[in-house]
Structure formats: structure tokens, C-alpha cells
Amino acid sequence: MTGLRVDLVSEHASPLATLGGADAGGQNVHVAALAIALGGLGCDVTVHTRAEAPHLPRRVSLAPNVEVEHVRAGPAAPVPKDELLTYMPSFAARLRRRWAVRAPHVVHAHFWMSGWASRHAQPAGVPVVQTFHALGVVKRRHQGVADTSPSERHAIEAELAQRVDHIVATSSDERSELLALGADPERISVVPCGIDPAMFRPDGPVAPRRSRRRAPRHRIVTVSRLVPRKGIADVIAALPGLPDAELVIAGGPPADQLDADPEARRLRELAEAAAVADRVRLVGALPRPEVAALLRSADLAVCVPWYEPFGIVPLEAMACGTPVVGSAVGGLLDTVVDRRTGLLVPPRQPEAIAEAVRHLLDNPSLRRRMGDEGAAQVRQRFTWEQVARSTLEVYEQLCDRRASWAVPA
To answer: Which long-range contacts (CB under 8 A, 24 or more apart) does 141-148 make?
Structure first.
């Protein structure tokens, strides 16, 4: 169905944002890449995201057939996403006025607050599709009192799970969590996240390694937002058992701002305490092409979050031909094929991380075989074009169903 008007709603995760901050990561990549791929399939796509600066243009062209619309709701300044709920009525009101002028064929909400706003602004006859990206019940299970989500989150997510027209989950693990919230299994489709195969591929520029004398023989890379749940501290704790490896950590603020970042300071202090500071480098946020070059330079990528709804970085690493040591949680259970494209370990266990990394570092032929199989698997199943086609099938089925309901018997 070419010409389908699709409005993506992503209240805090702008597709135009610089990645690496506390609230800028995988969802931003997902929304931007999905929008661009849908536009490439002939859809007319608008992404609605909250304006975080006073002088942003109302609409910005992102790609052919894709525009980003900045919605004025709350202060025109960055606001932590866990503090945004109070501005969602204003966000929904502006969506309602926009859609009264030009209603889309389908609305696809990303994150729970976007779902709340989309449901409250939903035009008659227009289906709302929901992708949660993360569920509050899972976050609370793993973070406990450290979870700063609004108290209303759990009830809102449960209501969305039961009432939206369709849910696009990103992993089989998320589907199970949604069923526990009361979602109808007939209204859930599992569509993974994806990668850009032109950027993330085995051949291409490779980031240089340090040339100093006695440089570590091996390089381990972690690409992540700098938040505790990503498990970077567990990788640092594993390093004493890996004396021939350096750890390069990409993510967080730009390199010249790392000294002011609390989590970056904490990770450096942990490295000092473990006597591995000379083998730990934080390089800050990197442009996407440099992320690919860094992953290609690594012997291994280590992605060991405590929990992870999906996790795009393991896919990007595998697409570059780099095997992954990942934690056996969430979406990694779907993407990292244990003992074929990498090794899965229990979360929050540095000893298990060290054992898995040591096994792969000591077996270069196994690493090469895993890297080759991972790259082939990602190209077969996890490109953004494939993700967009599967998502478009969901939209078209919903629109066809609505059209059949509108035909008199």
C-alpha cells in the first residue's frame, strides 16, 4: 500500500538527537531508521517528538518522504524522560489538533508515554500501534528503588497492552511480558530491531589500536549509554582476569565532557580500584560510522546489561563480523545464538564474563567462525528494510481490517 500516511510518535526520543546521553540511545536509532526505511517503501512518514529547544523549526526533513515535527509541550529544554508525564496532556492536545487537520492512516507510538498521548489524541477510525521499547514492570524488577519511573507507568502500560489496536514487540521475551500484562496474543507481532548493512559490515574502515610498547594484545569493545543497568561495571570487574585485553567504552557524552559525567567518573574509579585503569578507555559518544570502525577493530564486543528489551549493539557488532559476549536477557536471547555467533552469560556475573571472554580470546578460529556466522545471520534477518517491511505488513492488515468494518453489510 504505497502512499500510506504513517505518523510515528516518540515523545522523548527524537530521531534527530545526538546519541549517547542518558535518554538518547536505541529508541532514537530505531525510530529514525524505521521512519527512513518506511519512507523508502513509499510511505508518507511524520515523526512527532517533543521540542527540546526554543528555536527548533516546526518541521524538519529527515529523508525522502520523512519529516520530523517538533511538538511544543512543556519547557523548550531537555527534560529527563521520567519527568515528562506531566506534559503529556499538552502533547496529546497538540497531536489532536494536528490530526484534526490531517489524520494519518495509522499511528505508531514508541514508548509508553507516546502511547498514552496517541490514545488520547486518536482520530476516529485510525488504528494505534504500540511499541514499548521497555516495560516498567521489568525495569522495576531489576532496578528496585533506583527506578525513577512515575508511579502511574505500570497501570498505563497495562491499559495500553490491553487496549491499543496492535502491539509490535521487539523480542519473544517482551511478548511474554506483555501477555502477563493481559495483552491479547492475537494483537501482538514480534518484529525485531535492525541495522544499516551499508554501515555495519565486516569490510570497511577499522579504528586504529594504540601503538605504545606492551599494548594489550586484545581489544574488547562496549558501546552503550553510560547508565548502571548496562553492566559496564561488570566488564571492568572482569578485566583483572584478562590481563592481555584492553576495554574501550564508547558512549555517554562527547569525550571532552566525560569528566563531568557521574557514571563516567564512577567507572573510572572502579577501574582504578581494580588496578586496570591503564587498560580501560572511555572515548565518549562517537558518530555512527566511527562506531562501526571501532567494532571492526575489536576481537570481541561485550554487551552485558542487567536487562535489555532488545539491544541493537549486539546486532551491529555481529554485522561487522565481531562475535559477542552477551548477557542472557531480553532481546539478546533472540539475536545472539549461543556458541554460534557468540556466548551468553548470566547478567551481573563478572566471573562468567571473564570466563567467556577468555575462552574466545584463546580461540581465534572460533572467533572467526562466530564472526562470519553472525554477519550472515544479521544480513538475513535484521536489516532495517526487513524490519520496515514486517512493520508495514502490520499497518496494512490493520488498515484493511478497518476498511472492511466500514463497509455496510
So the answer is: 141/307, 142/229, 142/306, 142/307, 143/229, 146/228, 148/80, 148/82
Model pLDDT, residue 213:
65
Q: Tell me which residues of the chain have a pLDDT lower than 50.
A: 1, 20-23, 407-409
Nearest Cα to Cα of residue 222 among 286, 270, 136: 286
Q: How far apart are CA 284 and CA 307, in angstroms?
A: 22
Q: By three-state DSSP, how is residue 166 classified?
A: strand
User: What does DSSP say about strands 106-110 and 5-9: parallel, antiparallel, or unpaired?
Assistant: parallel
- Give, in degrees to the nearest 5, the angle at Cα 138 between 136 and 141: 110
What pLDDT digit, counting tens, does each position of 201-210 carry? 999 999 998 7
Digit-coded pLDDT (tens) for 321-355: 999 999 999 999 999 999 999 999 999 999 999 99
Strand partners, 20: none
| Contacts with 176 (C-beta within 8 Å, 6 or more apart), sequence order | none
Amino acid at 168: V
Distance CA 103, CA 50 (A): 19
Q: How far apart (Å, rounded) are the C-alpha atoms in residues 209 and 281?
A: 12
**Stated pTM of the model:** 0.89
C-alpha cell, 165 = 489496536
Residue 212: its pLDDT value, please? Answer: 60
Cα gap 340→71, rounded to integer Å: 45
Q: What angle do CA 55, 57, 61 make, to 5 degrees?
A: 145
CA distances from 266 to 99, 215, 227, 271, 284 (A): 46, 24, 10, 9, 14
